[in-house]
Structures are given as structure tokens and as C-alpha cells.
User: Fold these one by one.
Assistant:
Number 1:
Amino acid sequence: MRVLKLIRKNSGRHLLRTSLTILGMAIAVMAFAVIRTALDAWYAQAEASSPNRLVVTSAISLTFTLPMAYETKIRSIEGVTNVSYAQWFNGTYIDTKNFFPRFAVDHTTYFDMYPEYIIPPDEKADFFRERNACMIGKRLADRFGLKLGDPMHLTGDIFPGDWDFVIRAIFTGAKENTDEGVMFFRFDYLDERMREEAPARAGQVGSFIVQIADPSQAAAISEKIDAMFKNSLAETKTQTEEAFSLSFVALASSIVMGLKVISILVIGIILMVLANTMAMTARERVAEYAVMKTLGFRAFHIIGLIFGESLLIACLGGVLGILFTFPVVGLMKAALSDFFGVFPLRLVTLLLAGTTSLVVGFTAAVFPTIKALRTSIVDGLRIVD
């Protein structure tokens, strides 16, 4: 109990230095947690992928389309239970800054393959009934203050012209990592316009989504699909939905790697800040430790004092940093909502930040403790005026 009292009193002897160290620890811990959350946001879409869904795209590039007639052939492959298709639309809603995913999909099959989209039955029926109907996620509706029955006007770029839709359904996500910032509309509406305005582009889709019965057969079925269209005018590339999502992360691999490196550097900064504080503390108290040894304090008492103070500062900084993390992540989530459908602050991130603080607190006390224990009583008392 006396050692604990000494730890508390020692921590407050240089209040300004201790306070600044705790604040520095808190900022570093917060930065570490925020960076890890940003990394989780990059991978959230891949984590939401289903193991029994494959994505079939053009072997050349995502910008190239595939004939809609491929659907029947893909459906005939053993192990395939369902096939749907989608087309990235892009376009502009009000302003070019208002980015969010917009897809034309086969409404009769697409949502059967995505149970993570929770759609009220009556709204789904309205969406199926009206040719120019669209469906949006709840987060997207909240972002622009939209509700059922509101019009949505898009100015096309990939598909030029004015496109007028009516919101007939608003879906919610069944899971935390389900993106509610997406707009869907009916592919038959897009294809109908293309047949009138650009016949050469009609009957073409951006990708096929293939549902399979056994996820363990994903590689084999992917090979069969690609072999079926090999040497055709539109060869295919088939991969799991997770691999397809990760391919977009790979496009920003330098950014992701940079974030990973920075998160490691932040840990180093935390360690150097606290280690410097503890080294200064141990150097100032060499004479005190010598006197304590003279009075009969054992080595474990000295170890307890140094490690205890280091861990106390680390814990206070860690707790404060975790508390700072919540509002900062909230601000970043709002600021980056156009780019990240999900920005999850996970319990494992907070636990990792807290554990890192403890490890740093322990590590920072090692060398000051060794120095204090190796310094003899005579050498320690020599510095007394």
C-alpha cells in the first residue's frame, strides 16, 4: 500500500511534465485508433462479401461490358444456383461533389441474392411495379433528406442524357458493414433507353453476379465460367466477391500501406515520449533510490515504483486517448461519408489501443529500472549536495 501511495505522489511531483506526457500519450493513442479505423473502413466492403457469390467481369477491364446473353450459359453450369447482373451508372446528382454508388440491376433476381438488404415488402412491390422507380439506402436518404415518392434526377455521363427516377423503396442493412449509401434502379429502364438512343450499347452489362451452392467449389466454377468464354469477343474474369472487393483496395495500395506504416510509427512515438519521461524521472531520483536502499527497501520496491509510475501514466494517457477517439471518428465518418459506406469503430480497435498503451508503459520502464538497480548506494549518494 505504501508503494502505491508513493507511485501516486511521484506521478504528481512534476505535474506539468506528467500532464504533457499524458496528453501526448492520449493524442498518439487516439491517432493510432483512428488510423486503424480508417484501415477497417477500406476493408469493410470485402468483409461484407458472401462466400457463395462470384463476380464475373470483362477480362480486359471493368470499363468493358459483357453480353447479357451470357446469363443463360452461366446459369447452365453445375453448382450455379442463381445469376443476376448489374451495370455501374455513375452520373451526377445535383452536383458533381455528391458521389455515391449508382447501379442498374436486374430487379427480378438481384435482391434475392443479397439478403443483407432489408426492403419492406410493400416498397419492394412498388419498386417492381414502376419502370423508372429507384431504391436507395437509409443513409443516403438521410444524407440528402429524401423520402418515399421524392423524385431523383441524374445527369448521365457514361450514359448521357437526363434520367428521372422516383424513390419507391428505402432499404436498411442487416449488418453493421452493409452499405446503406447506394442507389439502385431497374436495368430494363436503362436498356430500354439504350435500344432507342444507342442500339449498339443495348443488351450489355457491366458484371454478372453468380450464386453458387458450395463456396468450396468457387475456384472450380470460376474456371469453368472463364473457360466457357475463352477466345470469344468478350472473355471473362471470374473471382469471389471478396477478391473483387479487395481489387479496389489494391488500387489504393500505397495509401493503405502508408496508413499501416503510420500506425506503427505512432506506437514508436508513444514509446519515445513515455520512455523519455521515465528516463528523466529515474535520473532525477538516483539519490532517492540510494537512500531507499539504505533504509531497507528491496529491489522489488524500486521496480514497483518505476513500473507503477510508467504504467499509471500510460493507462491515463490510453484512457484519455480512447475517449478522444469517439468524437474524432464521428467527425471523420461525417466528413468521409461520400467515400466510405461504413466507417466502423470496433471494440477490437479500442482493445488494441488500450493494450498498446500498457505494452508501451511496461517497455518504457525497463531501462530506467535496470539503471536504478545497477547503480550502487555509494554512487547514488555521491550526487547529493
Note: The mean pLDDT is 84.
Number 2:
Amino acid sequence: MRLFGGQVVAQALSAAYNTVDARPCHSLHCYFVRPGSPTQPLEFLVSRVRDGGSFTTRHVAVCQEAKEILTLSASFHVPENGFCHQIEMPAVPNPDSIGREPLSEGPSAESELKGPRVKFAFADDIEILQLEPRSSRPSAAMPANKRVWLRVPGCAGAALREQQLALAFASDLDVLETAMRPHGVFWWTKELQAASLDHAIWFHRPFDISEWHLFVQESPVAYGARGFVTAAVFGRNGHLVASVAQEGLLRMRPASE
């Protein structure tokens, strides 16, 4: 069993926040160096890279048994006014109109998707609505894009810091699957070896992740056992609140291994 990557990203961001005064994070970039164990304690080593007039930079090394498992760099920015534009949010079904009937039955009982509304054992307070069905045929190729509604109801009324931590956690849940879809594989495919390699988030404006947010995910390329995915995160009011990018390992092992 491995430690969930989104949890380590969120904890590393929290450690960086503990050394910053009154400046929200506007971006983070991290590398998953080694798999982590959920049974061993984590050590967070924060370096104060820079404290400028408008921007603060921190580097966090997350260690387990004296070895780095994740490195994170985060930048914090004093709120200020400036230029404003964004892409438009696509037209999608309202999350309140989506029923609980399965969009597809999935290939087996091992499927995570029992219906469009999904809860995860390691994050019981996160809800996801899949707008594109997974194929019931195990090897069926599907488009390299998908749209997902996501919310964390327990964050209602939380400060922006906690909202960002929740989004950092949740942003590692679903995006890499977008790069699997054209190849007819999913998380439950027995021969698939998949893992996050690096991860980046840009926080564009304040948000309330306890409300539904739309993740518009696209995988423009996969090559050399790596898949790359981007996600634009929109609030229900159409505001683009964050952007996510991730590269992950996608490797098929021989069935005999």
C-alpha cells in the first residue's frame, strides 16, 4: 500500500503556509520522488527561499526514513488588482440534475465507479460526478478528455488556505485517468502500472470548494511510458479558479509479472 500523493502535496503546502504571513499561495510545483508508506511518519523540511515585497517563495522537502519522497516549491503573492481575462467555461449538465444511476456498469466489481457520484475511502468528504462514462468494454478506446464535477462539502466556511489544501488533495484523484482513456485502460487494469510523477497547480482567484467545481481535463500527449494531463477548474459561476497540470507514469507490464 502506498501513501496517496495528493495527501502529501496538501501536507507539504500546509507546511509552507506555516512559514508565510497573510499571503495566499498562487502556484505550486512538485515532484514525486519515491513512493511513500502510510505506516511511517513524514518529516517536512521547509526552506525560506525568498521573502520579497510582493512574493514569497518556499521549498519543502518531504522525507520518510531519511529519504525524500516529494519536493515542492510554492509561491505566495500579496493580493492586488490587475488585468483580468479568462477562457469561457464549457456548457455542461448542472450537477444538481445528474442522477445517481450508473453511467456505465464498468468492467467488474473492482471498478471504482458504481455510479456517477463517487466517494473515496481515503477522502470520504470528496464527491465526484463523472460526466463522461467509462466504457463497459475493458479495451475500448475513448477520447483523451473528460469533464468532472467535484466538491468537498466539509470545507464550507473554511479559510482560503484550507480551500487550497483541499483542492491540492483532490487534484491528484482523477486527472491521470484522462491519459489512460485513449488506450482502453483504467486504474483497475491488472497489468497497468500508474503513478504521479510531477504535479503543478496555479490558483487564480479565491474559491469555495464546498460548492461544485468543474474540472475540464485533457491529455494532449502520451509518450515514452508517460502521460500528460491538464485541467481547468471552474466554479459554477463560470470563474476559472485554478489550473492543474500533471505528468504520470503509464506502463503496461506483461501479464505474467
Note: Confidence is low (pLDDT under 50) at residues 100-122.
Number 3:
Amino acid sequence: MKKLLALLIITTVLMSIPLVAAANTKPSLIKIVFIHKKEDFAKPSGTPGKGPPSDGEIDYYAFLGKGVEWKALPVNYVIDPDNPDGLLVDFITTTIYSAAEEWDTHTGAELFGTFSIVGDASWDGDDGDIPDGRNEILFGNYTNPDVIAVTVIWGYFRGPPQSREITEFDIMFDIDFTWGDAGDTSETELGDMSVMDLQNIATHEFGHGVGLADLYADECSEQTMYGYADYGETKKRTLESGDIAGIQALYG
């Protein structure tokens, strides 16, 4: 009887080991890349986002995935101001900070914390790249010259929704475009058509950084997370009703 009892105990322990190991195995990091194109281009292939609805019901926001958000807040980031357009460091940092704070203004959570200025930022979204532990914002030359900006999101996007989370994002503004301040457009539809407005695009890209996807339905064209932009546009500097509803659904 004692031998039988001992055998049962050993068998039970051995059977439980794989289950414990499986429960403690964290899924692999995954990256999602968002490509922001000009208004006159089609939706980028493979880019997450919502197109025209088939049932007539329009959601004015979309998520990266169920449960995909930052679990540890606030999110700090670094800015590499090196650029070919002669933009001053103060202009770049102030503009990018304002873009981040626009999201904080509309949610009860403090999404973005402090930033620091660096000279060695890299966009960790190319094939073979791995995340380097920094949320980086920089200017760079993307392989496709028609792309305004690209944002890569790293995180755990599979498994139970409660275990999914964003762990890093990088934003790159493509130097194939001329960047700057498109000016005050309160009296006109568009501002300075010679520049891509940095704050306009940065606000949109920060939305990806905290868990929102692109929108491609024409009815969503006034939302900050609309997937297209153009020279002189500044309407994405401030959030619209759908952007606010989306960020509050994620963070309160």
C-alpha cells in the first residue's frame, strides 16, 4: 500500500511539471508597423486599421488588439533632433512634447512622462531588428519615399487579453518630406503647403504608441487617427470625439 501511495505521489508531481512550465512561459515579442502615407495613396498593405464598414456601423476608433495597452505608466521617451531641414532643437522637442500631452489631456491616466534628448536614436522596425529598451523619436530615411512616418510597436499581443501589453514604440519621420510648422490654420482649411506639420503627424503617431490603430473610412477623415495626411494639414494636432473615446476606453 505504501509503495502504491508513493507511486501515485511521484506520478502526480511529474504530470504537474509541464503544466507549471507552460503557465510560466511568456509569449514571444511581436512587432506591429504602422505606415502613414499621403492622402492620395491606397491603404498600406498589412497595416492594421479599419476600412469602410460592411454593415454601415462606423466606429470612430480602433485598437491594436483586445487588451493591448501599456501596463506600466507613464511612458518615457527619447528624442533625437538631428534633421536635414534645419529645425531647431527647441522647436522639435516642444512640438513633440505638445503632441504627447494632447493625449494626456483627454484621459485620467498619465500616459507620457519625461523625455530626454539623445543623438543616437534608432528605429527598431526593420527586418532583423530587436527592441533596444527605449521609446525613440527621430528623423530618418524610410525605404519607401511615399511614407510620411512609420511607427513600430513591440509587445506581447497574443494569449489571454489580460497578459497582452505594449513594451516599446519607435517613431520615425521620413526625411523625404520637408518638416516644419504649417502655421495657424484656424481661419483656413490648410496651412503652409510647403511643409509637413510636425505636431500634426507626431500626435497621430503617439496614438499608435499607446494602443490605437488607423482609421480608413471616409467618415473618419477628421479624426486624429485617420490613416492619411498631407502637406499643410494641422487638424490632427488636436483629438476629435473618436480619438477621445478610444483613449478613454483604454486608460479611463
Note: The CA atoms of residues 77 and 227 lie 23 Å apart.
